[in-house]
Protein 1
Amino acid sequence: MNLHEYQAAEVFASHGIRTNSGGVASTAEEAEALARDAGRPVVVKAQVLTGGRGKAGGVRLASSPEETREVASAILGLDIRGHTVRKVLVAPAVDIAQEFYLGVTLDRARRQNVVIASAEGGVDIEEVARERSERIVRTLVDPFLGLHAWQARQIGFALGLPPDQVAGFVTMVRQLYDTYLSEDAALTEINPLVLTRQGDWVALDAKMTVDDNALFRHPGLESLRDLDAEDPTERDARESGISFVKLDGDIGCIVNGAGLAMATMDAVMLHGGKPANFLDVGGGASADQVAKAFSLVTADPSVRAILINIFGGITRGDIAAQGITEALRRVSVPVPIVVRLSGTNAEEGRRLLSEAGLSASDSMDEAAAQAVRAAHAA
Amino acid sequence: MSILVDRDTRVLVQGITGREGSFHTEQMVEYGTNVVSGVTPGGKGKSVAGAPVFDTVADAVAETAPNVAIIFVPARFAPDAIYEAIDNGLPLVVCITEGIPVADMVPIYAHAQNRGTRLLGPNCPGLITPDEAKVGIMPGFIHTPGPVGVVSRSGTLTYEVVDALSRAGTGQSTAVGIGGDPVIGTSFVDVLGLFEADPATEAIVVIGEIGGNDEETAAHFIQEHVTKPVVGFIAGQTAPPGKRMGHAGAIISGGSGTAAEKMAALEAAGVRVVDRPSAVPEAIQTALRTS
C-alpha cells in the first residue's frame, strides 16, 4: 500500500524526522488560507500516488496567498499518469543549500535491507542508478545487529559532507531506517533530503510503501488507505480476497493461481488479443468466488469475451465446473465465455460445462485463440 | 536419484491439526509419503492420518526423527514455527504459508543460513520426487518419474508444465516450487546447482515470472556452472509496471524485473526460452535428444 506524501510525512515526523510541515487542502480557498497562515512563499504539491509530479506540473511555487489560490486551482483536478489530483500539500518554501537522496528498501537479491543515498537529490533516482551508478552509495544492514552509527557516518562522508554536517545526517539516516523497520515498510524515501542555508536537515518530500502482508499489525496505517485513488473494481476485489488488476484490453480473464493467471494473459496476447485484467480466484474456484469474479470482470464495459482457465489440482475439475455453472445461475454474463479446464477430473468437468451450453477446451492455447475470436466477433 | 526428498524422507507437519494441515497430511500420506509426526501446541495425543501429534518440535524430533518439516501454520504464527524447526535442527524446512511479512522473513533467512538449514518458500507449493515423496500441496497424480528437473516460482503454472511433460511421456526427477515472495529461502540458483549435481536429472525446466532479478542471477549461474540443457518460461509479458500480480514478489518496480529482461538474460545464457507452457515438452525432448 502506498501512502500520500502528506501521510508519509506525518509518519516520518512521528519518528522524529524533521519534515517540511505544511497543510493539506482540497480546494483553492483552503490552499490560500494555508499560505496566508504560513506568511511566506509556499510550494504547492499535488498529492497523488504516482511519481513524476514535477514534470506533470503538479509541484509549483507561489509567492503570495493569491498566487497560491491560482496555482492550487490549476493543480487540483489535474490528471497525472491516470491519477486525478484531489488534494494539494501547501508547505513553506525552504532556502535550499544542497539536495540529497535517501531511501531504505529491501535488496531482494541479498535478502537484506539496504540504505541507498546519493548526493544527486531531487531527481529520478532510478535514472541516476542507471546512468551514473557510481553516484549512489548502497549500504546493507545486518538483520540482527541493525544499522550501526559508523555505517551512517560512512555514507555521510561518501556523499562528501563537511564533517560538521555529518552528525545531523547520521540522525536522519537512523530515523529513516527506524521508521522503515517499525512501520513494516517496503520503502521509506526522502527525495530530496535537503540541507538548508541555515544548516538544518529537512525532509522536503516523504514517500512510503507499506508491506500489505504486515498491515494486520498496523491498523493505523490501514486507515490511511486512499479509497478514492483506488480503481473501484480493484478495491471491490481486494475486499473479497481476490487478486485483481485492471488492464486496458477487452478479454476478461478468470484463472486459478497467480502464475497461471499471468501466463493466461500472455497467451491471450500471443493469439492476437489483449487481456482486460489479471484475476486469480485462488485455489478453490467455488461458486461464490467464480460469481464474484464474473461480476468483477463484467464491471468493465470494454470486456467483449471472458476466458476462464482452471487447472484442476487438488480441486477437482468437475467441482470447478459445477462452481462455474452455479455462478452463472446467479449472475448474468452478457458476453461469450470460453472455458479451459484441465487436470483432475477435467473430462467430467468439460462434459458438465457442455451440458450447460459452455464451450470447454482442454488446451490453454486453443481456449485463448477461441476467446480472441469471440471478442473480435462481438 | 532425485534432489532434496526421496524414499528416505521422514516428514514432520507443523500445524497438522488445522484445516490445511490435516487435509494435505492425508493427501501426502495417500501419495505414499512417510509422514512420521505432526506438531500443534496443545495437540499432544491426537493423530492425523496415522501420524502422532506432539506439542513441540523438540518432542516430535526426539520421538520420530523427522528430516523434513513442512509448515501449514497461519501467517501470523508461521515465523515462530520456522524458527522452531530451524532451532531443532531440521535440515530442510518447507513453508507453504502465504502472507508472511517481509520484515519477518529477512532475519529468518539469515538465521537459516547461519544454522545451515535449507528453507524452501514461504508461499510455495513444496516439492515432489515422483513415486517417492510428495512434501507439498501439488496434485500428485500429474507427476511421473523421469529425467527432467523442474524449478518454479509459481504453483499452478508448475502443475501446468508438469502435466504437459507427463502427457508427452517425459517424467520428472524432482519438481520444486521455490515460492512467489520477495524473500525466499531457496533460490533458482540453489536448485539449479542441486539438479546439475544429480545424476538422475538430464535436463532442467526453469519457470520464472516478473519481479526481482533471480532469473537473471540464474542465467548467470547457468552460463558458468550448468552443463545440462535448460528450458525456460517466464510469465507476465503482459503485466503492467508497479502492480502486484497476485504474488507479493511479482511486481515490476523502477522499470526492472520485466519478463523481457529475464527472457533475454536466459537466452543469452543458452537457455531455450519458450513463449508458452505447452511448448516446454517439445523443447525438452529436443534438448534431451541433442545433448
Protein 2
Amino acid sequence: MFDVADSSEQAWRAEVGAWIRANFPPELAGKNPYRYTSDGAYADADPDFQLWLRRVVDHGWGAPSWPVEYGGGGLSARQGAIINEEMINAGAFHPNRTYGEMMLGPTLLEFADEVQKRQFIPPIARGEVRWCQGFSEPGAGSDLASLQTKCIDDGDHWVVNGQKIWTSGANHADWCFCLVRTDTSRKQGGISFLLIDMKSAGVEARPITLISGTTHFCEVFFSDVRVPKENMIGGVNQGWTVAKRLLQFERGSLASGRAEEAPLGPIARKHVGVDAEGRIADSDLRMRVIQNDMRLRAYEQSLRRTRAEVKAGVGLGVPVSALKNLGAGLSQERAELMIEILGQRGLGWEGDAFTPEELEATRTWLHSKAYSIYGGSYEVQNNITAKRVLGLPSA
Amino acid sequence: MAVLTEEQSLLRDAAEAWAQERSPLGALRKIRASGDGLGFDAQAFAEMAEMGWAGIVVPEEFGGADFGVHSMGVVLEQLGRTLTASPLIVSSLTAATGLKRAGSAALKQAWLPKIAAGEAIVTLAIDEGVRHNPAATELRAKKSGAGFKLSGAKRPVPFGMAAHAAIIAARTSGAPGDVSGITLFLAPTDSAKLTRAPLIEIEARGAAAYHLDGVTLGPEAVLGAVDEGGPLLERMLDCACAGLAAQMLGSSSAAFEITLAYLKTRKQFGQLIGAFQALQHRAAVLLGEIELTRSAVETALDALDADAPEAHELASLAKALAGDTFRRVAGEMVQMHGGIGMTDEHDAGLFLKRARIDDMSFGGAGYHRERYGRLAGY
C-alpha cells in the first residue's frame, strides 16, 4: 500500500525533517550509524556524535514514544516511527538506537515494577547508560533455554557465577541485562531476568576478534558477583517470559533495520563495465544483481505493507520471523554480490592501497555472515514460523 | 492482506463465497472433461458478469463500475484460490483497458458495454513465437485503400475459440524486434479470412492458433495511432501481468494451505509428517515467498491505479515474483504429498499445470526480470 498520509501526519513529518536538517552535524553524514551504537569507545571519542546525541536527547527524542514520566517523548508510536524515517530521509540516523532503547526499555515498560522503571528507564532515554545483552553462553546458543549461569539466593543479594558469550559491546557497557538460572529442575521455568552492574566485583569482559576483524563481541565471566535483590525483573523464574518479549523487540528492530541499501547497478557498471547496449557487461552477474534488487524491493514493500496493516488494524503484516530471514538473506546476498563486483579490490584488509569504501565492503561482507546467526538464527526463525505461524506440530 | 476500501472488501467477500460455492476446484475438471475447447464455463462467467466483475475497470458511462485495477485484483485473487477459469483477465481487464485508454468513441461504444455485461469476449492476439515478446511481432498489416489487410499467425490466443473479437498486434512498419511500427487492431473473429484451431494443452484454457489470410479492416479498427501501438500494448500488458499475478497469488496461497493441512494429517514413522523439521523449514520458506509476492502484487495494482511512472517495473516485479513463487509452491505441493500428489485424482497436478501456464502467460519470470533490469537501469 502507498501510505496515505493525512494532513497532520504530513505536518509532523515536515516539522521533524526541518529540525533534523537544522541540527544534524554535517560531519556525521555518511558515517556508519551501527558503529556508534555498538562500539562505545568509538562513540565516546567522536565529539560530533556526542553533540548530535545531546541535541536529540535535549529535544525529547531520545526515546520519542516512551511515556514522559520515564523520560520519554510521550509521542505516538507512529510519530516516533516518522522521526526514524525522516532521519533516514535526511541522510542522518537516530543516535540512541542502542540495545537499551530498542530492546530493554520497551521490555521494562511492560515487566518492571514502578521503582525499577524510575531507576532504569530514564537514563536509557537520555542515552547516558550503555547496556549489553547477556543471553548466549558457550553451551546455549540457538538452544538458549539450556543456559547454565548460576544465580543463588544469598539473603538480600543474588550471587552469580558463570560465563556469557557473544555479548556485544560488553567491554564498554555500564550494565548488562542477563538471563540466569535460579532453578535447575526446570528448563525455561528456571530462568530469571537480572540487571547486573558491569562495575561489580567479579565481572570481567574479554573481547573476541571476529572474521571481520571487529572486537565488539565479548566473553563475560561472572565470579561470585553480588547483585541487589531488587534488580530482578518480572519475578523469580519468570525470566523466560520477559526474554521472549525482549527477543520480539530485537527481531522487530533487526527486521526493520536493513532496507535502505544503495542500488548495486551504478557500482557494477563502474567496476564491471558495460556492453554495447549499456548493460552490465557480465550477463550472469547482471541477472543476479537484478534478482537481488527485485527481491530487496519486494522486501521493502513488505515492511511498508506490514506498517500499513498494523496501523489500519486489518492484520499483522508479514510475520517477524519470516521478515528477519528474508532481510538477512537478501543483505548477505547483496554483500556477496558487492565483493564479486569489486573483484580483486574487494579482497583488501587494510592500508592505503584500497579505498575506504572497498575496505568497508569487505568487512561488511564478512560481518554479514552474522545476520543469519544473531537475534535467533535462520534455523530458529524457521522453527518459530513453522510452529507459531503455521501451527505445525512438534516432534 | 491489503488495507482495502469498503467496496474492495465487499468484492473480496463476494468473490470468496462465490468461488467456493459455484467454482470449486472440481469445476476445472468438468471444463477439461467437456472437450468443447472454450476453456471456461459460460454459465459461471455469466454469473460473474451479473455480479459486476466483468465491468470492474469499465467506465460507468459504458455500463461498468470503474473501480480500478486493484479492485479487479482483489476478485482475481479469490478466483485464483479455486483455479477458476475465466476470460476476466484477458477480456474484462486487459482488452477493456486498451479500449478505455485508446479506443475511438465508436469502438468504445461498440465493445465496452458488451464486455462489461459479459456478452462479448475480446481476447488478445499478441504472441507469435515460442516466447512472449511483443516487439518481435511479425504479423503484417498492409495498407489497403483506406484500411488494412492483415496476414500472419498468432499463437497461443487465450480463450481464442470463444472470443467474439481480438485485439491484434500487427506490424505496420519497421522490422521484427522494433518496438515502434506496431499497430493494435480490434477485429471481430467471424471474418472468413480468419481461421482458428483449438490447442489441446496441459490444461483447458481455451487457447487457439489464429491464421489471418488477408483479413480486411477499416481505419476505424485501429486502437490508438498507427505505428504507435507499442506503448499502449505495454500498458495493457502491465495490467494483465498485475491482474494475473494477483490470481497467481491466490492460487499459491491455496496450494500452500492445502499442503499445510496435509502435513498436519498425514502420518509416517508413527508421527505427523508436519513434525519433521526438513518439511517445517521448507514450509516456512514458502510462507516468506508468498508474503513477498503479496507485497509486490498489491504495490503494482496500486501503482497502475495511480498511473504511476514506475508502474511498468512494478508490474514486472509482481509477475516475476508470482511466477517464481507459484511454480515453487506447486512443485512442493506435489513433492510433499508424495505418490498421491502424482495422481490425476489429486488436485496438486492442477496447481502444477496452472503454475506453468500462468508463468508463461504475458512473459515468464525470466522475461520480466530482464524487463525490470532494463527499466531500472541495469
Protein 3
Amino acid sequence: MRLGPDGRRRLTFVGTFAIALILAITPFPKWAEAFRPDWVGLVLIYWCLAVPERVSVGTGWLLGMLQDVLYGSLLGSNALAKTLVAYLAVRLHLQIRMFPRWQQAAAVFALLTVNQLLVLWIRGTIGQEPETFSYWTPSVVGGLLWPWLFVILRDLRRRGSIA
Amino acid sequence: MINIFGRSIRAPSSLTRLIFLAAISVSLMMLDHRGHHLEKIRAGLNVLAYPIQLVAAAPAYVGGAVADFFTTRGTLRADNEKLLAERQMLLAKLQQFDALEAENERLRRMLGSAAQIADKAVAADLVEVSAEPFTRKVVVAKGSQDGVYLGQPVIDANGIMGQVTQVAFNVSRVTLITDAGHAIPVLDNRSGLRALVFGTGDQDTVKIPYLTANADVKEGDLLVSSGMGGTFPPGYPVAQVSKIVNDPNESFLAITAIPAAHLNHGKQVLLIWPGHLAKDGGRAK
C-alpha cells in the first residue's frame, strides 16, 4: 500500500503518539517503575519544537485527556499539565532549537519538571500527593534520554517528510 | 487566518487557546472531583482506551506464556507437591473451621445478631497495565456487566487489597490500600484498638497516623478491617505493624505497617459482595 505525503505525515504523528501512550502504561518490573520517563511528554515536546504550526496546545490537551483516561487519574489533570508544556515548548521553540544538545536536554528536563510540578499540585489539592522523592526521577530520566530520542524522532520526521 | 462558513477570521493565538483549554481542564477536574458527574463520560472514553490497554498488556501476556512454555517438568512436579501439601494443611484447618463457624453462628443466634461471615467472591483477572506513576491502582477484567459496583472491596488470599473506584462496562479500576488517597478503618487484632490505615503511595508500606504515645499498639500486631464505614466487611487482615517511632517532638506516633495482601504478585484478585452468600455455599466444603 502506498501512502501519499499527507497520509505518511498523519501516520507518523499518530504512530509516535500511540507508541508513547502504550509505553506509558506497559507494565515494567517493580524496581523499574520509578525510572519510567514521561514518554508522552517527551514526544509532545519534540513535535512542538519541530513543527509548532502543526502540533501545539490542542494536541497537548488531547494527549493529556487520553492519558487521564488510561491512568484513571482526575479527568483534566494531565490535560492541563500537557497543555501548559505544549504552550511553553511552542513559545520557546526558536531558542531551544538553537541550543546545543546537552542544553536542549536541560530545557526538556525543565519542561518535564513543570509538568510534574503541576500534576503534584493538583494531586496535593485533592489530598493524594505521593510522599517519595523518587517522584522526580522520571523527569531526570526524560532529560537524559532526550539526545537519543531526538535523533530517533528526527529520523522519523524526515522519513515522514514533515517539514 | 482560518475560514469558517465562508468568512475569514483570525486564528486564535496560542495564548488564547491555552487559556481556553486550561479553563476546560479545570472545570472538568472540579466536576470529576466534586460530584462524580463524569462517570458516564469516563466509562465511554474507557471503551476507546481499551485497545491501547490491550496492546500495552500484550508483552506481559506473551512473556507469561513463554515462561509457562519453558517451565520444566521438575518445576511442575515440585509445584504440584507443594500445592498438595498446602491443600492437606488447608483441608485440615477447614475441618475445624466448619465446627467453629457453626459454633459462632450458634453464639450469634444467642446474641440475636445476624452478622454473616461468608461473603460471595468472584475471581477477576488483572489487566496488566500501569496506573499513573506513583499512584497504586490496578485494572481488573470485570465491569458493570458482571455486577461490579463502586466501593466494592477487593481481596486476595492473604488480605484486603483495596476497593473499586471506577467501573466501566468490561473493566474496572481498583485503588489499592497503598495509594496515597486511600484510608481504611481497622482494629488491632491483639488489643482491639481502633485506627485508620492510610496509603503512602509507596509500593509496600502503609502508615497509621493519629495514634498518641499511650496507644496500645506493638510491632508485629495484625490489623484487621473493622467494618466501620460500611465499605469493607469486618475481620479481614489488612496489614502488620512493622515499625513504631516515638519522636517526643511530634504529637503522634509514626507507625508504618506492611500490607497483608500481596499487592504486587499474582494475576488474579477476588471481588467480594459482602453479606451475599454464594449459591453454592460460598466456598468448597
